Amino acid sequence: MHGERDYxxxxxxxxxxxxxxxxxxxxxxxxxRWGVTSExxxxxxELCLTELDACRPFxxxxxxxxxxxxxxxxxxxxxxxxxxxxxxPSGYSITHLEMEYGALMNFDKSRAAFFLRNSNFLSNVPSDxxxxxxxxxxEKSHRLLExxxxxxxxxxxxxxYPCEWKGVVDSKPMVGGLERFGQNVLETFWKYFxxxxxxxxxxxxxxxxxxxxxxxxxxxxxRLFVGRSELLRQxxxxxxxxxxxxxxxxxxxxxxKTSLVSHFANSYYKEMASSxxxxxxxxxxxAAPDSTAIRNTLMRLISELKLLFGLKDLPANPENFKxxxxxxxxxxxxxxxxxxxxxxxxxxxxxxxATNHSHLLEWLPQTLPENVRLVVSTLRGDVYSALQRRPNxxxxxxxxxxxxxxxxxxxxxxxxxxxxxxxxxxxxxSKSDATKPLFLVVACEELRIFGVYEKVTQKIQEMADTVxxxxxxxxxRLEGDFDKTLVINALSLITxxxxxxxxxxxxxxxxNLETNDPLPQPTWSRLYRGLKSYLRPPGESGEGxxxxxxxQLPKAVKRKYLxxxxxxxxxxxxxSTYFWTQxxxxxxxxxxxxxxxxxxxxxxxxxxxxxxxNLRHSLCNLGFIEAKxxxxxxxxxxxxxxxxxxxxxxxxxxxxxxxxxxxxFVTGRSHVLVKHPHLTFSMALSGPDSSSPTRQAQERYxxxxxxTRPFLKWLNKPTSANPCIMTLSGHTAVVRVFAHHFTPSKRxxxxxxxxxxxxxxxxxxxxELTTLRGHKNNINNVQYSNDGTYIISAGMDRKxxxxxxxxxAMEKLIQAHSATMFTKFHPSGDFFVTxxxxxxxxxxxxxxxxxxxxxxxxxxxxxxxxxxxxxxxLMVTGSxxxxxxxxxxxxxxxxxxxxxxxxxxxxxxxVAFANTSEDRILSGxxxxxxxxxxxxxxxxxxxxxxxxxxxxxxxxxxxxxxILSSSNDxxxxxxxxxTGEKLxxxxxxxxxxxxxxxxxxxxxxxxxxFDRSVKIWEVRDKTESLGHDxxxxxxxxxxxxxxxxxxxxxxxxxxxxxxxxTEIHQLVGHASNVFGVCWSPDSKFVCxxxxxxxxxxxxxxxxxxxxTLVGHKAPVRACAYSxxxxxxxxxxxxxTLIIWDASPKGNYAQIGTLFGHRDxxxxxxxxHDGKRLATASDxxxxxxxxxxxxxxxxxxxxxxxxTFVRHEKGVKMCDxxxxxxxxxxxxxxxxxxxxxxxxxxxxSELFGHTSEVRGVKFTxxxxxxxxxxxxxxLHLWNVEKGVIDISFSCLSRLxxxxxxxxxxxxxxxxxxxSGA
Length: 1316
What we know:
The protein is α+β, with helices and mostly antiparallel strands. It has 30 helices and 66 strands. Strands 7-8-9-6-10 form a five-stranded parallel β-sheet, sandwiched between helices. Strand 4 (164-169) and strand 5 (172-176) form a beta hairpin. Helix 10 (294-309) packs parallel to helix 11, helix 17 packs across helix 18 (484-496) and helix 23 runs antiparallel to helix 24.
């Protein structure tokens, strides 16, 4: 019955086990023909009957035309259960006796079924092999007929089944065509199991379901565990200790880490089940569907801990990964407040997929509470490296001892009641990889399903010696068990996939994609059962992912099936076609299904398949870009372009530039797309008309009709691409400094903020990798070590912290004697220098807690900047005292003064040496200048004047041909180092640019700013001017809307022609920022308000200043003419408003002052009928004033009639509706409030911005309100419905806006931080 046994083992029992999982029943088939060794032949009857007792009430009987071996006597122990044999006639076969004992003697108590092979098949068996299937002895033939009749008369279920001659397999004649036989066995015993173990009601709780996955996995892996007593003792000792460090269990692949962890977890879990003081949470990566994703792992752990520790007040699990990571840390912290102990066991950390940079372990808290014990296991690699950089204890799982090897083999096979004799065991254990549990388990699995028990010894002899080759033999066996092409395609698909395939995907891919006919379920089920031992649990209904459990198997697949590049391309083509169809089934370019896996994997497989034209229709498709970003995959999309860059040489030349344009579009706007993917179309439309994304946006709207959403058309948009290619944001306070370390394979940027944290970013994708927490307040400086392996940060809290650059782990904390202002590594990397608040310089060697040298006599005041010459022989320092000094550095790292430089009149913020020589240095100071000095003579080579405010940083490029400077004026300037001429301005930051550096061989510039962001720019010798040279602070249309006035931080105002964008006048005269601007009603005059505490009146036709108004005691923030032009009102930081006589004969005399606000007044506006004035203040209020227009005392101080209180932060702008019934206010609290001006009550509140609201304006018809915010977004609100109709993303933080109507078209003017 070799064929039947083989069919049951390979096909029927695996499916029966699958079904029985729902019953929580584990099936162990016992083959009574496999398991009696040669040494045990004398006791064969006892052994077989004993196994039948263990299997009751289930019994499968199979009979062909052979009766079986007949023992001379029935040798069994003298036990009551064998008493029946004392009277049973002799001469009966063991098979007959097994059937009597197992079922026929008590058939009413058994769940038995008999399967009788139809003898007709013998006619097809060659005569040479007929004796193998038919009994030749007449006596035995008679006994066989007697047995069959006994079976028929027993009342048991009996099946007669057909079969066919299969030929000789493994030198053994076999039968085939057993599908009907197998189906009868399966359905019969499934029925029996259901009767014996009724199906419980399904528990739909996903947490319970996932917990059961982990528990079943834990039990199954621990079931066969043997030995390792010393390792178990060490794990238990750790768990019982008081350490807060994790225990790391490591070992080679296949060494048995998971079995060790499972056994300990299972036994300890059961031991502590009744404990009121200890909670055990085991988690096995890969054991449950999708558990290799760090997001799902954290969600499960958080949910378990909430439940087990009663943390009901914690928020729900968020979708955003960073928020989820923070919630996990908070949950662990809260667990630490409990009086219970947590033992958290996480196996196979290395099997986490790399999503969200899980291998860096940023998600794992650096320190654990005293009542938390963490046990983890991993292979050597990046996860292990991350763990090594944290304090931890470690256990190495080594090779098995011989007795452990034997025990694993015996236990594994005995599950199926199979054994090896001593010779067979020794042959197996002599294999070179037999010291690895994985090898033994796989070998036993292969032996288990090997159908010819007489040739087991030969099978072992021929078996591979190593795990890799053994897996190749597994592949060959699978090819023989199933359709070879099906096996090759299925395994190739899993190997080429990105993290595995869903069962439904696999069936579709193995079927016919053109006709949408999947592989038949029975065909797939048979194949799956053959593969199941080597796959991760997929979950019921196929909701999980099919992926390899052991990474040795996909390596074998690559060697055997994917060695030919053409086959790999074929598989990737198949995968790309499938996923494309899922994501865009109509192939219309809309990508409207938002199919997560389709959008995620289509580009990857298209790139691997080198289907460039098809790739163009995804990565160069705005619909695809919006859909993928809409699924939270913005940074994955950036990674798609980076993957394409790696294969750029294969891309047709005519497509390269188009791919680059879309990459630039996505990367440069990734910080917006990650939050507002719906703005993809409008942002593309706002690009230069010559760019590919813009041309496609225009075509989608104007030609194809694929885009129908309303949008705001940018009238004066730039004609060239924005040089800013990426913006990194995430801090809650000023970013003062950053450092970068770029290599060919990796780009990292770390920045430091006044919020006390550092953030590390991927410089290729812009994704935030980790946040470093350790400082208490402002961080003044951060540096990468020369080799990029660690980071040094220094701050006002006197802390010097060394961080591991890869993992973000804090490696050392040094408490300096004084607040640290600056740090700089020596070119040799042997030491670094710090400057301190007490004016001292300290030299530190790596790893030491105290400086080896301190220089106290340096400058008269603090040193703000340090740099070394290329050789390291010279050092330059710049100080708060306005001085620059160059120092000699001796071989021991000691300093002596070489020369002092004087020439700056104010604080020197930054100094830098040239990169190719030691004869030039740069300094940047608060006198707004950049100076290039000759080191030897001390003379000035150039003084570069171009900034309008303090210079914060200066740098030479790599070959010293260009100079880079940044300033408080928000501008970065690129200079010619030889001529001192300004080459270009980089505008985009909305606050002081504290630092700017060249990067990647001068291809890029990186900068950080007061606006809390880091930006990456392309280096350009010429840049397009978009308006002002600094942030625009206010905009105002004249009454007709034909002219626009702008006020800027560059100390100027400008007048523009609205529709053409032509600059008409530049208004120069203020000594500082121009905060406000407004038009007289007749458009003859423009008034500007400035930080210099004055207002200026300008002739709009000539662009000349005609009068300067002085009256405020602090900066003037805003100004507004009354609708009749008789009054001008100004608002100031002195908390007052002044009314000026703007009548023809009034000469702008002061005619009143308004008091009432408790903080600076930042905005004012008149109602359209002139009867009311609204004022906005940083005291969080809006005040409404009666102008007394039409009364006798019109012209004196106005009367306050209402104070609107609702906002939680300062109010930045207010505006009246055209009918004067509503007042809108926008605040730093990100909210907008509409007030009823008649009864002073709130009409409605609008929430849609995520940062400070800088502007609000009603349209003339009063139906819409436009708002602008520091989140860079402009929203057009439907006032009646309170919803956003249209949004627009500006280049930078929006600072000002106004609205007008020209020829029935609404025109919006907004000024942002880029000066546009």
